[in-house]
Amino acid sequence: MSLDKIIILISSVGLIGFIYWFFLSRRPDDSPMVTTAAISVSGGYSPSVTKVPVGQPVTLTFTRTDPNPCLEELIIPDLKIKKDLPLNTPLALTLTLTRPGVYPFHCGMNMYHGKIIAV
Amino acid sequence: MHCASCAVNIQRLLQRNPGVSTASVNYATEKASIVYDSAQTDPQQISAVIEKLGYKALITNPDELVDVRQQAKDREIVVLKNKFLLSALVSALLLWATLPLLMQTAPLPLKNSYLHFFLASLVQFWVGRDFYRSTWASLKNRTANMDTLITIGTTVAYLYSVLVIFLPQVISRLGVTPEPYFDTSVTIIALIILGKFLEARARGQTSQAIKKLIGLQPKTARVVRAGKEVDIPISEVVVGDQLRLRPGEKVPVDGVVLSGETSVDESLVTGESIPVYKHADDTVITGTLNTTGTILIRAQKIGRDTMLAQIIRLVEQAQASRAPIQKLVDVISSYFVPVVLMLSVTTFAVWYAFGPAPALLFALLNTVAVLIIACPCALGLATPTALVVGTGLAAQHGILVRDAQSLEIAHRVNHVIFDKTGTLTEGKPVVTDIISTSANNKSQATSHILSLAASLETGSEHPLAQAILQAAEKSAVTVSAVTHFKSLAGRGVEGKIHDTKYLLGAPQMFSSIPPQVSRLEKQGKTVVLVGTPTRVLGIIAIADTLRPSAKHAINLLHRQGIETSLVTGDNPRTASAIASQVGITRFFAQVLPADKEKTVRQLQAENKIVAMVGDGINDAPALAAADVGIAMASGTDVAMESAGITLVNKDLTTIPLALKLSRATLRTIKANLFWAFAYNIVLIPVAAGVLYPFTRILLSPILASAAMATSSVSVVANSLLLKRIRLT
């Protein structure tokens, strides 16, 4: 096998490892507990994890700045919330989560994901 | 507002207002959007500020913003269309200039490779700029999506072509004939944009049902104030207002008829197909159509509280909920794109290291094909689009599904248990027979019986007493005063009328029971006797009338292969009579309201998937215990917590319809998921070239993009097919 092929094979393995690390490795969850959060919606949700206290009203404000139509809907299935996120218009959701747990949310096509953790 | 400068003035004023962070006033749409701090100000204060300038401000409910959003979506679709047309034109020109058979006919300037570079760059970075923007935004969050795949795929093809044009010697040195692939990058973008355009249009159609419901809300109402009739915006109507409604107008609020009579077409809101006759004290529902008469109504529920608003909210909530079948998709979609990226790297490495010459070219093209063909969108759209169409269609027929889970369970239901009173029957007992047991003048005797019974029952709230009192009122018999009144717990009453002691109640209270009693009871009627402690004077039979749709509904369920049963607090004879009248063979009689839940569990223990149909209030525990609770809405309240499905109209044939619809929706979801999975599982390996060693088959990146564009469109189209299902 020629040198270039060996280099390609080795760097491919490295690249796959990088893709795994970049997208799929678990990142330490050090998000602080909040009762209000501004979540920016652009190529995903930032921050993608919001930790909130159980039993207290919390306000999450979503602002979409990304024109990608995938992100135009926000769905929180466990809370039966489906909202349109008009571009550049903040949408404030006030929720009181009565049970601890993870409440995932995603975009209309289930492509971008985030979660609310109630503790 | 008369001119654009009015808008500017209002905007300036608003922005100076404390608590307002941004304000934008649009002259064309006559709308202002204001972002404010609710601690410092509120919409009322803001509208007061605007009114000071001499304008009138109407505060819109966020629910009414749909129009504005729709406009934004429509604009998006137009932009997509234009982008597609441009990229399709460029793609056609490039294909003309490069395809082996066509290129001879192309004019010379078109063959200039620098022109190709210019055109391809235009498509890559102008048409495709949203792909880049979305990719960059995703990468910042360490996530990836379909746009990431398209960006990488087309960029690889584009950059390789740039290299070919500007540094052909580098490519030649690698043993590859330097040929650009601009046609590939451009055509991929054109087809993907076409797919997005078609998908956006089709997706708009999935939610048509709910848009139609929203459109039913009239924008104005004619209010009667100080004897004058004025048209005012619907947002200014308050509870208690008297509103005039003329033929052909839609009911603006939920209200009660004060005067006049008419028939109202409720089909668009409740699915009730026959116009309903309305006169004083009847309830009218927002969004229904007044057809023949003019009526005056009093507003009882407005805005968010109307039945229409509740229906819309329920449907939206159902569409946001997650079907259990979706769980696997959720897991897969969170790994999908990174896994495809890894697969594409593997494809490149394997083709480069082990593929035939020119290895670099094979490696590149197959890598691009893998990136382009993977379609996570089809998977993501499979369940939600079918759910939106299914729940929307259901709502149009007066079926409100609480969530996706209820819909998913409903499709497996094989036993429906009906509560009797108020469900199979109207729930309003009426006196059907009065028989005097004395031989004298019969008609005089029967009115005497009724008079005695009505006297003894005066003031009672019991439904049977109500039936007797109503009958007495109808035949205008005299009601006498009762002394020494005593209620005999659960069996009847006694009291003295003109110094004679009388009893009224269940036959068991009397020592001798007349022979007619058993005949009446066999007919499913409830029998009460009137008499003195020693002698029965008369028999009163009371029955609840069956709903006209009951028999047909049960017949339809049986034809669907679904078993039925009846549960009631009545005695076995009444239960049997009612059951046989509607065609039900199995019944549970003398079941106390609290024990109906046990009946449901008993059926579940027989391995049946049970749907319980009840009124949603008394039957709440049984509805909750059933696999699917189906509640008949009463009045204008439709938000039934205990029920998975709420029926807005009183038509029982809606039940077989709801079950049929749930099966159709689930079938569509399963078909969508199957195709979306199969598509990716089969075509990604084909694009990677696994068939090549055996069949020499490879997928060109252009074909890959065509397949990808079709896949998500076909999923949405399949969901839209649900609308065509024959429901009757």
Automatic annotation (TrEMBL), chain A:
<keyword id="KW-1133">Transmembrane helix</keyword>
<feature type="transmembrane region" description="Helical">
    <location>
        <begin position="6"/>
        <end position="24"/>
    </location>
</feature>
<dbReference type="InterPro" id="IPR008972">
    <property type="entry name" value="Cupredoxin"/>
</dbReference>
<dbReference type="Pfam" id="PF13473">
    <property type="entry name" value="Cupredoxin_1"/>
</dbReference>
<feature type="domain" description="EfeO-type cupredoxin-like">
    <location>
        <begin position="16"/>
        <end position="118"/>
    </location>
</feature>
<keyword id="KW-0812">Transmembrane</keyword>
<keyword id="KW-0472">Membrane</keyword>
<protein>
    <recommendedName>
        <fullName>EfeO-type cupredoxin-like domain-containing protein</fullName>
    </recommendedName>
</protein>
<dbReference type="InterPro" id="IPR028096">
    <property type="entry name" value="EfeO_Cupredoxin"/>
</dbReference>
UniProtKB/TrEMBL annotation, chain B:
<feature type="transmembrane region" description="Helical">
    <location>
        <begin position="673"/>
        <end position="692"/>
    </location>
</feature>
<feature type="transmembrane region" description="Helical">
    <location>
        <begin position="114"/>
        <end position="132"/>
    </location>
</feature>
<dbReference type="GO" id="GO:0043682">
    <property type="term" value="F:P-type divalent copper transporter activity"/>
</dbReference>
<keyword id="KW-0406">Ion transport</keyword>
<dbReference type="InterPro" id="IPR006121">
    <property type="entry name" value="HMA_dom"/>
</dbReference>
<keyword id="KW-0067">ATP-binding</keyword>
<feature type="transmembrane region" description="Helical">
    <location>
        <begin position="84"/>
        <end position="102"/>
    </location>
</feature>
<feature type="transmembrane region" description="Helical">
    <location>
        <begin position="180"/>
        <end position="198"/>
    </location>
</feature>
<dbReference type="InterPro" id="IPR036163">
    <property type="entry name" value="HMA_dom_sf"/>
</dbReference>
<keyword id="KW-0187">Copper transport</keyword>
<dbReference type="GO" id="GO:0140581">
    <property type="term" value="F:P-type monovalent copper transporter activity"/>
</dbReference>
<dbReference type="GO" id="GO:0005524">
    <property type="term" value="F:ATP binding"/>
</dbReference>
<keyword id="KW-0812">Transmembrane</keyword>
<dbReference type="InterPro" id="IPR023214">
    <property type="entry name" value="HAD_sf"/>
</dbReference>
<feature type="transmembrane region" description="Helical">
    <location>
        <begin position="360"/>
        <end position="382"/>
    </location>
</feature>
<keyword id="KW-0547">Nucleotide-binding</keyword>
<dbReference type="InterPro" id="IPR023299">
    <property type="entry name" value="ATPase_P-typ_cyto_dom_N"/>
</dbReference>
<keyword id="KW-0479">Metal-binding</keyword>
<dbReference type="InterPro" id="IPR001757">
    <property type="entry name" value="P_typ_ATPase"/>
</dbReference>
<dbReference type="GO" id="GO:0005507">
    <property type="term" value="F:copper ion binding"/>
</dbReference>
<dbReference type="InterPro" id="IPR059000">
    <property type="entry name" value="ATPase_P-type_domA"/>
</dbReference>
<keyword id="KW-0186">Copper</keyword>
